[in-house]
Amino acid sequence: MTRPSLVVHGHFYQPPRLDPFTGTMPRDPTAAPAHDWNERISADCYRPNAEHGNLAAISWDVGPTLAGWLAERDRVAYRGFVDGDGGRNGMAQPFHHAIMPLASAADRRTEVRWGLRDFELRFGRRPTGMWLPETAVDRATLRLLVDEGIDHTILAPWQVEGGPDLDTRTPVRLDLGDGRSIVAVLYDGLLSAAVSFEPGATTDADDFVWHRLLPRFEQGPRDAGSAPLVVIATDGELYGHHQPWRDRFLARLVGRTAPTDRPFATPSLVEAVRRAEAAGLPTVRLRDHTSWSCHHGIARWETACDCVSDGSWKGPLRAALDRLAGGVDALSDSLLAALPGAPDAVAARDRWVDVVVGVTTTRALAAEMLDDTATDVERRTLSDVMDAQRWRLAMYASCAWFWERPDRVETAGALRAAVRAARLIDRRARSGLEATLRDDLALIDHDGLDGLGLLDGALHVVGAPNQPGNPSARGLRATG
Length: 480
Prior knowledge:
By secondary structure, this protein is an alpha/beta fold. The chain has helices at 37-52, 64-73, 75-85, 105-123, 139-147, 189-197, 205-218, 246-253, 269-279, 314-337, 345-351, 353-356, 362-369, 376-394, 399-402, 409-429, 433-441, 451-461, and strands spanning 5-12, 59-62, 90-91, 152-155, 172-177, 180-186, 229-235, 283-284, 445-446, 449-450. The strands form three sheets. It has a four-stranded parallel beta sheet with strand order 3-2-1-7. The protein starts with a strand and ends in a 19-residue tail after the last helix.
C-alpha cells in the first residue's frame, strides 16, 4: 500500500478594496504603518509564503480581485503564486466571492466564467478545480461547474450526507443528476479547526505531525487497497497574518524545510483526486445550501441567524441590492438593445472580464460587439452599461454580510459599488435607481445605525459626491 497523503489547501482572498469611483486603493489608517490592508497582509503572509516556496507545495485558490492587486503592487508575492502553480496547485474561484446559492443563474454563470478566465490568463491553463466562496453550495451551482469543465471542489465534511461514519480521508462523488457528477474533496474538520483556531497547535510542525496528523492517518478501518488522504483547509491568511510566523510552520509541515523522510506524501490535490478516482469513489448525497462558516446553512449572508448577535440588517440590505440589480439589468437590456448590433447584455457581460483584467481595451471589445456604424457616444454607452454590470456584481461580495454590524469597511465597499452601478445607469437611462436604493436602505435600523447614514458614510469615506441628506460619516470598522 502506498504512503498516506497530506494536502494543505489555502483559501487566499481579500474583500474588494478598490474605490469604484476612481479605480484606486484608498489609504486606510487602520492598516498603519501600511497604506492599506492588502499591503499589510501581503507583507505578513503572501510574500513570506512565496519566498518560502510554500505556494509550490500546497493547494490554493487566490481571489481574482486579490490577484489583480498583487500583480500591480507586490510582484514577489504574485510571482510566488504564478510560479508555484506548476500546472497543478491552483484552483479557480468565482470572481467576486459572491455566495453562489444566493445569486441568480446568470450571475452564477458570469462569476464562474470570469473566475475561470482570470485563472487562465494568470496561470496559462484551464483549471480543473474551483473553490466556492465560503464553500457555499447547492446542486445548481455544482451542475454549472461541471458544465464549465470543473471536475472537483473542496467541501466541509458536514456538507454531504454520511453521518458520523463518513470517512473524510477518501474523496467522494456527488451525483448531480442528468448524467452529471463532481468529486468533492472533504477536508478534515478537526485538524483544520485546530490549525485555524488553536495557536498552540501550530507552534511546532514536527509535534503537529507526530501528535495530530499521524494518528489521524491511522484512525479507524480503511480499505486495504487505498491509502488515506488528509486535507487541511483554512484561510490562507492564517499562515503569517492571522497567526504570525505560521508561514514557517507551513514550510516545515509540507516539506520545504523538513527532513525528506516524512512518513507521508504531499501530492497536489489534482494528483490525489486522480489516484482516488482510480481506486473508486463512494457516491454520497449533497446537503444543499450549506457552507463552511455558517452552522445554519447560508443564513449568515441573507438574514438573521445565531452566527451573530443581531443580523436583522442583513435581509433589508440584500433586498435593496437585489432590487437595484433588477433595475440595472432591465435598463441594461433596453440600453443595449438600442445600440447598433444590439448586443445581448448577459453574453456581453460574460466577455467584459477581459476589459476588467486589462487584456483588451474598451474600444477593442466594443468594436466586436457593435456594428461599424456605432458612434463614440454609443460606444461609451456600452462601456458605461458594462461598467455598471461590473460593480453590480461586485456589490454582492460575501464579506458585506459576514460580520455582526453593518458599519464596517466591507459593507461600505458593497454600498459604494452599488451607488457606482446605479449612477452609471441613471446617467444613460435618466432613471432613478440611486433614489430607489436610498429609499430601500432607509429600512435598515440596527443598534442606532440607519441605512442612509451608512450609505452617506460609505460615500464620504472614499470622497464620492453625496446626494442631499445627512453626509456625516459613520466610524467604519476595518478588518485584517
